């Protein structure tokens, strides 16, 4: 009898954890497992803002796939998925090949939502991979280096705009607030000349989060020189300026550096491949299968699940992606062995912790508010926990965050 072919797309939180679980749960005699990913490494997306600001080297954020996936049990294909043909059980790859599957796990993550804002795709940076984070770090540093070599000393080299004051935008400005004084020292620039501007459309940053913690975050960031433009929409992005609008009044801000962190959508491959979708995401069945294809599981940011209490979708988070991986792996095993029922996915939201730089943070964990050093420690514990889950104590000791007390 032919062994069933399981193909996993993407080595992010959802995809790599599904793979790591499956390689332990399923014998090579029972199924062929293939993991497809663009790069030969996994990266912790949740650390990328630290790399983008230049506070943490990107090698700390990535893990070679061979270090956590057993290549004698899993076939690894380094390639870019171009499209999925769910009617034919095939995945088409950039390098021309195609892969057949009996069961598929889609874990291709997110991409920036740009809402059709003119100039964003062409001129703004986004924090979504090691490559984009490294580019932002280099670009900022280049402009600091250029400033004193530029006869005009253009202010736009020193104005850094971050669009969106959600968790990504706030975590990134927190890192920048710590990095900028170091860059100023290195390139002989007065700190007062540099502007870090956070543009948020809602009347407050972190809309919907605990107001006391939001106030704490704003005070912490403002005391380190971050300017907030609240109730302000980023309307256009040009190579050397942005246009913002507040109360129907427009303003131009000269800048060579706009980082767009104002929302995400599922990888557009999902929508383009013809899956039934809700604004680009697959609203999965309780056991994480696509409603229209019972051999396709969708995990992480490509999947949509509703919170029955709030009647709103759960936000796309690594926390949920890794929990989904546990259930997807369990359910695949159940289907292959034919002996067990599939399990329902029930998210267990433990809380939210956001960094404000390496030395400050805010959060709510199991209903308890945290800020300052307690939240900072908790954030690092969360980051370390992932490493432990993914690669055991060896990976934790190699890449873990142990500079807990400042
Ligand atoms: P991802 O982790 O994004 O992985 C997708 C994988 O697919 C990547 O390896 C990518 O290279 C690969 N891939 C993509 N396209 C292709 C293709 N065409 N072909 C082959 N491979 C492909 N969530 C939290 O819970 N806590 C946090 O503290 C937190 N912090 C965050 C900080 C930042 C800066 C950002 C941007 C997000 C943060 N999030 C956080 C959200 C979290 O990162 C995402 O929800 C999570 O990464 C989603 O996991 P995933 O497995 O769906 O996709
Ligand atoms: P988000 O959707 O949570 O926030 C985007 C923000 O941009 C919103 O506040 C929105 O009002 C604003 N915005 C939208 N359009 C705008 C415009 N034209 N001009 C100005 N502001 C505009 O997106 P995110 O921050 O990228 O987060 C994505 C997901 O990742 C979320 O689910 C989030 O919870 C998760 N995340 C979690 C953490 C953490 O837990 N520490 C950190 C980062 C991201």
TrEMBL record:
Outline the extent of the FAD/NAD(P)-binding domain: 5-325
The chain's coiled-coil residues are none
Q: Which UniProt keywords apply?
A: FAD, Flavoprotein, Oxidoreductase
Concerning InterPro entries, the annotation shows: FAD/NAD-bd_sf, FAD/NAD-binding_dom, NADH-Q_oxidoreductase
Q: What is the protein's given name?
A: NAD(P)/FAD-dependent oxidoreductase
Pfam families xref list? Pyr_redox_2
Quote the PANTHER family the UniProt record gives. Answer: 64 KDA MITOCHONDRIAL NADH DEHYDROGENASE (EUROFUNG) (PTHR42913:SF3), APOPTOSIS-INDUCING FACTOR 1 (PTHR42913)
Quote the SUPFAM superfamilies the UniProt record gives. Answer: FAD/NAD(P)-binding domain
Give this protein's Gene Ontology molecular function annotations: NAD(P)H dehydrogenase (quinone) activity
Q: Which family does the UniProt entry place this protein in?
A: Belongs to the NADH dehydrogenase family.
Source species of the chain: Terrihalobacillus insolitus
Please name the GO terms of the biological process aspect recorded for this protein, alphabetically: aerobic electron transport chain
Tell me which cofactor or cofactors this protein depends on: FAD
